[in-house]
Structure formats: structure tokens, C-alpha cells
């Protein structure tokens, strides 16, 4: 591979927990950062000019649902809280997600993620059904490969669905326990690469442990995953209802309940964790279990604000995630960063979180949570996963400290980005992706979904969900 030099860096953040700044240049050789500092171009080296850019590690999105990028602003779900929204949006539409719909949806989400700085994405795909004539995992990995990102599939599924009062809502698709474990194994055999510079990985990820599997299965799921070197992931404590249900039915708060089943440790991360006691925050920090912080979806669904800053203060692992676009109309890393910055300070004061900490959560924090240990930090020997954010938008004019623009302006726009030294965004464009064509595909697929749900007579109105 020809050498590459990212030169003229005036505003750089390494991604470490201290918010360390740097300037100068980054030399890339064989997909790795070879050197940093005051470097001159060598003969034959390709030079990328970082003038007018902020340079950070590529951003890491640790929890998403790519199938929801064609389920934005579904009218019946716009003013619904979590349970109602789940029923009216994902659980009403899942039978109509065919292979093409999933591919277009993933393409929309990945385009937005990549253009807002992501270089690593973890997608929690939770709907696997024998009714599908395709493998959702295959569609998602194919799309991820087109974009050249590192992609971890948190392979979801459930053995127990939630019942809905309305017979027009199709029953949630479930698998047998053996079917679920076999599905994880097959995905791992095909895509799980344990090497430090892996492009594809699998995690074992039942949708929501308190609702979607039997308690006696949890320890076996954990053992099954660990025997194969897979991480564990799930939704947890997304709102007060989850914790109240777990206490009522399983007799404990969600975090200590999962601890009893071997579901805490440095190889586990949970999406949301909005409703936590101080004791639960401490238990997560002690065991090294990570948080995928999803401030936008939690705000849009009225779920609350996760105590991410409290977990971070105790030395716990915090990462940033956009969550499914069906619950926040966005897969934008900059919007997620700004939401977290604004929400924590609005409710807990200006000392709650610094912009530099948010960059860390979205870079090295995310890499540690997912176990991509050679990424997320700009230092010699690390993978050359690098984002150059464009400051040429008027929103970024007048900043005394431009390095913080990707957080403070809520408008993170990438000029160039690299995964393992390979360029995935060039002058603000994704090579090989025709955005006009994608816009047409999106409109067509969204129209078709809306038509299909009306034909099925599923007018998702006054329904209620129960576990
Ligand atoms: Zn989610």
C-alpha cells in the first residue's frame, strides 16, 4: 500500500479519556498509524490536506437498528412512548421488511453515519423470522462491506414475544432456544473475526433479557457466547417500566438480576441504561460492563436521560450510539453528540460533561465497549481509522476552539475519512454511492411499506402492549 500523510493538522483530538490535543501530521503505513507529529512528506507519499478540518479517530456507533431507516416519522408512532411505539412501528412493520427494503434501509443509515464521522458500526438486528426468505445478517454485512466500515452484528432474536392487545399487530417473530443458539453459531462461523483489525464481528444479543427469553436461558446464552469468543449485548432499563417489570416478575432490579445469571463483565454492553440506581451504576463500573448511550431516542420517546456521566466518573465504560432511526429520525453521530452535551448539562449543570469527554465516548470509549482494541485512538500502532471534519459550514465560523466543533455545533460533516488507511469518504462524498438514486429508492420503499400496512388493515391506533 502506498504511504499516506495527513498533513497540516491544526485541530486534532486523540480520542483518549483526557481529551489530549495534537497538531502536525499523521503518517499511515499498511493500514496503521506509523507516526505522528511534525512530519514532512516523503517521496511518493500521497498527502491529504487537513487545513480547515478537525481530526479525530473515526467515530464508533455502538447500538443501532439499520432496518428502521425506512420507518422514520411513522405518524402513528410520533407521539407514542416506548411500548406503544414498539408496537406501532417496528412490530407492526416487520412482516413487510423484504430483502430489498432492508438493503435500502441499511444504505440510508450507513450513508448518514459515515458522512457524520462513523467508521465502526454495531447493528442490533433483533428480528429474525422463518417467514423471511432471506438472511437479514447477509444483507447487512453486504451493505456494510460496500461502505468499507468495520461492522459488528449484534445478532438478536427472541424466544418469547410480547403480546399486544390489538389482533391487527402480527405476533412478534420468535425462535426456539436451539434455533436462536444455532443462528448465533452460523453467523459467528461466517463473519466473526477475532483478530485485532477485524472488519466483521458477531455478538450474541437477545432483544431484551427481561422480556424476550426465559431467565433460565440467560446463563447458557452467556456461556455459549463466551465459548466462542463473542461479546454479549442487549437492551436494558430503557425506561422505568423495564425496571419495574423486572422487579415485579424476576424479583430484582435489572442489573443485579443479570449479574445473577453471569451477564455482567467487560465483554458485555447494554443499550440505554436510562433507569439505574446508584448501586447499579457502581455494579456496571466495577464489572466493566459498557453503556451504549442513546440520548436522542431516549429523548424522542420520553424515556429519560441515562446517567452516562455518573458511570464515566466511576471509571465505567461509556460509548455513544444513535439507536434506530424509527425512534429519532436520525443516524447522525454529530446530532447524538450534541444531544448528549445539551441534555446532561441542561439537567445536571455545566459540570456534568465536557465536549472532550463526548469525543472520547464516541471514539476510544466505543472501541473498548465493542472490543475493537486497536481502533478508536490516534497513536502510533493503532489502526488508521480517522475522520477529518469539515469546518467550512457557516455554523463553524467564529469558533475560538474549533477542535470541539463536532460536538458543539451539532453538525458534524466529514470531509475525508479512513478505515484501516482506506478512504471511505472523499471530499464529502462516499465513493460509489449515488445519493440521488438512494433518495429515489428510499421514497419508493417507504411508499410501498405504507401501502402494504394499509392493505393489511393494520391501522395501528389505540393499542396497548403488555409483556
Ligand atoms: Zn435499540
Oligomeric state, counting identical vs distinct chains: single chain
Give the overall pLDDT as a whole number.
Answer: 94
Number of helices: 16
Q: Which segments are poorly predicted (pLDDT under 50) over 5 or more consecutive residues?
A: 460-467
Straight-line N-to-C gap: 54 Å
Chart the SSEs and their pairings.
Elements: E1 4-13, E2 21-29, E3 32-37, E4 46-49, E5 53-57, E6 59-61, H1 82-88, H2 90-93, H3 99-115, E7 118-125, H4 136-147, E8 150-155, E9 163-164, H5 177-191, E10 200-204, H6 209-212, H7 215-227, E11 231-236, H8 240-250, H9 254-260, E12 268-272, H10 278-287, E13 290-293, H11 295-300, H12 308-313, E14 317-320, H13 333-348, H14 355-370, E15 386-390, H15 405-408, E16 414-419, E17 422-425, H16 435-455, E18 465-466
Parallel strand pairs: 1-4, 1-5, 6-7, 7-8, 8-10, 10-11, 11-12, 12-13, 13-14
Antiparallel strand pairs: 1-2, 2-3, 5-15, 9-18, 15-16, 16-17
The chain binds zinc ion.
Zinc ion binds at residues 63, 65, 124, 235, 271, 323-324.
Gist?
The protein has 467 residues and is an alpha/beta fold. It is built from 16 helices and 18 strands.
How would you explain this protein's 3D organization?
The chain is α/β, with parallel strands linked by helices. It has a domain at 59-370: TIM Barrel (Alpha-Beta Barrel). Helices cover 36% and strands 20% of the residues. The chain is built from 16 helices and 18 strands. The protein has helices at residues 82-88, 90-93, 99-115, 136-147, 177-191, 209-212, 215-227, 240-250, 254-260, 278-287, 295-300, 308-313, 333-348, 355-370, 405-408, 435-455, and strands spanning 4-13, 21-29, 32-37, 46-49, 53-57, 59-61, 118-125, 150-155, 163-164, 200-204, 231-236, 268-272, 290-293, 317-320, 386-390, 414-419, 422-425, 465-466. The strands form 3 sheets. Strands 1, 2, 3, 4, 5, 15, 16 and 17 form an 8-stranded mixed sheet that branches. It is globular, with a radius of gyration of 21 Å. It starts with a strand and ends with a strand. Residues 460-467 have low confidence and may be disordered. Bound molecules: zinc ion.
